[in-house]
Amino acid sequence: MNKFKSPLKKGTESSGENVSFWIDSSAKEAFETPDRNIHTEVLIIGGGIAGLTTAYKLLKSGKKVVVVEDGFIGSGESGRTTAHLSNAFDNRYYYLENVFGKEITKQVALSHTEAIDEIERIVTTLDINCSFKRIAGYLFLDETDKEESLDREFEATQNAGLPTEILNTTPGLNGGEEIRCLKFSNQAQFHILQYLNGLAKAIVSLGGVIFECAHAQNISDKGAEVNGYTFLANHIVVATNSPINNLVQMHTKQYAYRTYVIAGKIPKGCLPYSLWWDTGDYKSKLRTKPYHYVRIENYDENYDLLISGGEDHKTGQLDEEDFSANERYMRLEAWTKNFFPMLGDISYKWSGQIIEPIDTLGFMGKNPGDDNIYIITGDSGNGMTHATIGALIISDMICGIKNKWEEIYDPNRITWKTSGDFLKEAGNMAAQILDWIKESDLKNTIQLDNGEGGIITLGLKKIAVYRDYDNSLAAYSAVCPHLGCIVKWNSDEKSFDCPCHGSRFACDGTVINGPAESNLNKIGLK
Hints:
Elements: H1 21-24, E1 38-45, H2 49-60, E2 65-68, E3 84-85, H3 93-100, H4 102-126, E4 133-140, H5 148-159, E5 164-167, E6 181-189, H6 192-205, E7 209-211, E8 216-220, E9 223-226, E10 229-238, E11 254-267, E12 274-278, E13 293-298, E14 303-314, H7 325-339, E15 346-357, E16 363-366, E17 373-377, H8 383-398, H9 419-431, E18 452-458, E19 461-467, E20 473-477, E21 488-490, E22 495-497, E23 504-506, E24 511-513, E25 522-523
Parallel strand pairs: 1-2, 1-10, 2-7, 4-12, 10-17
Antiparallel strand pairs: 3-6, 4-6, 5-6, 8-9, 9-10, 11-14, 11-15, 12-13, 13-14, 16-17, 18-19, 19-20, 20-25, 21-22, 22-23, 23-24
């Protein structure tokens, strides 16, 4: 769904409030809002990088395309990315080799490499001013990982045909002269919203139509209902981060995580434009080992912006660990300043949603059981390239062209070697049902400060409550309309988050992340 609401707030540069640098630093194009019924060849639901790239590719092939976005272009998870363009797979190539074999692993590496090339081609063709640049990436060991991990990954990347090399030092890191790393050449970065604005302009110039503030629901093989209007199409592409058309099947094969980002100014030119990643926390109880990721972005004539992310946890399950969101930002800042001590005050901070597939590869292609509905999901930590790969696959499929990666990323696939991980994730999901009988985090609404929310129990009912800054109190059913789990309050983003499948709702009950496609039910207070 990804509707832009209050969780991303514009503030002063030094406020430290949750604000994505990309949204804060970009001019917004204005597009239509739905005011009529539509009949088109292809309806694309979602105005992030996956949806817009698919639209652009199809329009270039002569198709008639309509894009609908619940918020505004890039206001969903695309606007919360740190925009690493990388073929350094965040779940490791040696893992892929073990699960899929060397040949498929080689094709995965090729697909991410070609996705970066495709983005560069689009930037050049459309002359998009989005600070695209080719840079190097450096993977170095987390203190909990073993030295042999770098050597295993080096061997696997060589098998996959990537031009990697082991370095005895890590450029740019404080203390890096004593830290080995794996260098990935020819990576890239860009300003995501400037790129999306350029794509959106091209879509309109090619005859495409973009609707913003356009809430799609009741998706079928005929089209969708959008703000009460009927949008009919021969092909429907659901590019909403987490697919809102698929009730159960896809959400048993992938899982939602929150990740945290900080950004602050550093003196111009004191660090090379590069990508840095550590190998992840192997003491974490999470199946996917949370790692840190860093890059540099141009800021002004005197400063660059250092952008650092990490400290992930499962969506709606912040209380499963001992760290609050604020503590995660502080841990992230401490980690970052240890390796990049030139970082000063934090100018921006925000969090984003990552969808982790059970076998680490995205799901891009026909939705299971459908002939003309397609999905792009399972972005993992390679969201920009996964989304672009999905656009290339689906635009080929709609045009009747066999894509060489179609079977690798098929949403229908079953990966038997990950059955143990599947059972672990299924157990975690099932455990959230206990929230129905657990004691709520609030005894009564008197405990609520302004700008805060929580869950209270009234008889057999679970109620989500929020006290606004004007002291008014609102209440909603705490039952997620997707599959009935109990939502949790997210104080950092001022949202109610589902711990089962990652649906999120703004403090006014409005759905902002799928798979839920409807709002929390409002409850009148007596």
